[in-house]
Specification:
Layout (H helix, E strand, L loop, with lengths): L12 E2 L7 E3 L2 E3 L1 E4 L11 H10 L4 E5 L11 E3 L5 E6 L1 H16 L3 E8 L11 H4 L12 H4 L30 H19 L5 E7 L5 H17 L6 E2 L12 H8 L7 E2 L9 H13 L8 E3 L15 H14 L3 E4 L10 H16 L6 E2 L4 E2 L7 E5 L3 E6 L4 E5 L6 E8 L4 E2 L3 E4 L3 E5 L6 E6 L1
Parallel strand pairs: 4-13, 5-8, 8-9, 9-10, 11-12, 12-13
Antiparallel strand pairs: 1-2, 2-3, 6-7, 14-16, 15-18, 16-17, 17-23, 18-22, 19-20, 19-21, 19-23
Length: 455
């Protein structure tokens, strides 16, 4: 199976004219998505699911290289005695990965790959993932625990960062020389991954899922991927996702990302979409975008939590709608609904959100506007959010309907107002609004709506 051909200019990269957004196939592109799984390459009905995503305007997926769900396969060959040989591949795993790359490229769907997911190697929450994983020494014929430093069980939450698997890089505080043998197998695995993905120009690379590990871990893999791409004469874009970004102003790890744009090509701030609600979510987005180096790179959200209240603050479907729209109006380059049970995936709500965002984009591209909350008055808390190109275009999100006053100074005597129903993705017919310096904008109902006003 030969991969699709991508010229250097066709490959996804920060947009030449505005590096806060992505460029793909020589055109600026806003990445929107939602899928029912995070490791889509492992699902049996992948093509049908991608078609559903594309049918509503979705064009990005998250793909963790994960293998912990029922029906998943591991990358290594399982021997007749039930143990694995880490020197031999399970080609079914890699065939699935290659097929995912082909199907997404055919549909111009961008893939954000996460190379490592800390929950794959944890026994927390009675998952038992480590107990059955090929990397566990008792489960393979390749190495012993003494040779690699790997234990028999890891029942602590992976956020405590006690697993040696994530400390194999020299210079890390917990590094031991015997981890070198394990790192050799890690690098062999990533090299095989890249042998499939590098030819494709629709791929972004994120090193981890919500990691709490020393940034040097991810930096090793970013450099590894960059070096392999350079050997092939290709340019790729890499980052890492830190758990502490839900409170970015206090996150030491996120400060590393902000201060090192030469290492982190884009930002993934997915964790801001949990534990933050209403105005606090918007304020933290604004803090991120106020940082100078955050305004020179795309900012992605590969996870929006929203399936129902949990102890870690995933929020409700309404919270998911709000987070999605606040992300877009703040200037984010990518916004995707997380899979169930922590998100709503690609259900009717998320599909309507994607459709409504495309309806707005057809009137005003999001890269032509930026937040202008100072133009709103008579606003209640969390009642309205505005991005605009003052005098020319205004996009107003009202989570619960209601009314708000909008300063139209500099706009023509009359502007066209179009309401977009977030619940259905449909646009209402445009109406004319007289501009007397300001306009009272009243939503058609108490449901979530977006208003687009253009000169």
């Amino acid at each position: 199976m030969k991969p699709m051909r991508f010229s250097a200019t066709d490959r996804i990269r920060p947009w030449d004219e505005n590096p806060r957004y992505w460029q793909y196939r020589c055109e600026p592109v806003l990445l929107l998505g939602g899928t029912r799984e995070d490791n889509l390459f492992q699902i049996p009905d992948l093509e049908e699911h991608l078609d559903l995503l594309a049918s509503v305007g979705g064009n990005v997926i998250r793909n963790t290289m994960s293998d912990r769900d029922e029906g998943d396969v591991y990358p290594y060959l399982r021997l007749p005695d039930g143990r694995y040989d880490l020197d031999q591949w399970n080609e079914t795993y890699w065939d699935r990965f290659a097929e995912m790359l082909r199907l997404t490229a055919e549909r111009d769907i961008v893939v954000q790959i996460e190379v490592w997911d800390r929950f794959d190697l944890s026994d927390v929450r009675e998952m038992g993932n480590w107990q059955r994983h090929p990397y566990r020494p008792a489960n393979n014929v390749t190495y012993t625990g003494e040779e690699t430093g790997l234990g028999d069980a890891y029942s602590d939450h992976p956020g405590q960062d006690k697993h040696p698997f994530y400390h194999t890089i020299p210079g890390m505080a917990e590094y031991q020389p015997r981890y070198d043998r394990l790192r050799a197998y890690q690098e062999r695995y990533v090299a095989r991954l890249l042998s499939h993905s590098l030819p494709y120009g629709n791929v972004l690379y994120c090193m981890d899922n919500e990691t709490s590990t020393d940034p040097r871990w991810g930096q090793h893999w970013m450099a590894f991927i960059k070096a392999r791409a350079a050997q092939a004469g290709l340019d790729v874009h890499v980052t890492d996702m830190f758990d502490t970004v839900w409170h970015p102003e206090d996150s030491e790890e996120f400060r590393v990302v902000l201060d090192n744009p030469q290492l982190y090509d884009f930002l993934d701030i997915s964790q801001i979409n949990s534990r933050n609600f209403g105005e606090a979510h918007w304020d933290r987005l604004q803090w991120i975008f106020s940082q100078p180096t955050a305004r020179t790179r795309p900012v992605n959200h590969t996870k929006i939590y929203s399936a129902g209240q949990t102890g870690f603050g995933s929020g409700t479907p309404q919270d998911g709608i709000e987070r999605f729209w606040r992300n877009l109006l703040a200037g984010s380059a990518s916004s995707r609904f997380h899979r169930p049970t922590a998100g709503i995936g690609l259900n009717a709500i998320s599909r309507a959100c994607i459709e409504s965002a495309r309806a707005v984009e057809a009137l005003v591209p999001f890269w032509e506007i930026e937040p202008h909350m100072e133009l709103l008055s008579d606003r209640v808390e969390n009642g309205a959010y505005l991005a605009a190109a003052p005098g020319r275009a205004y996009v107003l999100f009202v989570p619960y309907g209601g009314s708000v006053s909008l300063d139209l100074t500099g706009a023509p005597p009359a502007v066209a107002l179009t309401w977009v129903d977030i619940g259905s993705g449909q646009r209402l017919p445009a109406t004319r609004v007289a501009n007397a310096g300001a306009a009272l904008v009243t939503a058609p109902s108490t449901d979530p709506w977006v208003a687009v006003l253009v000169a």
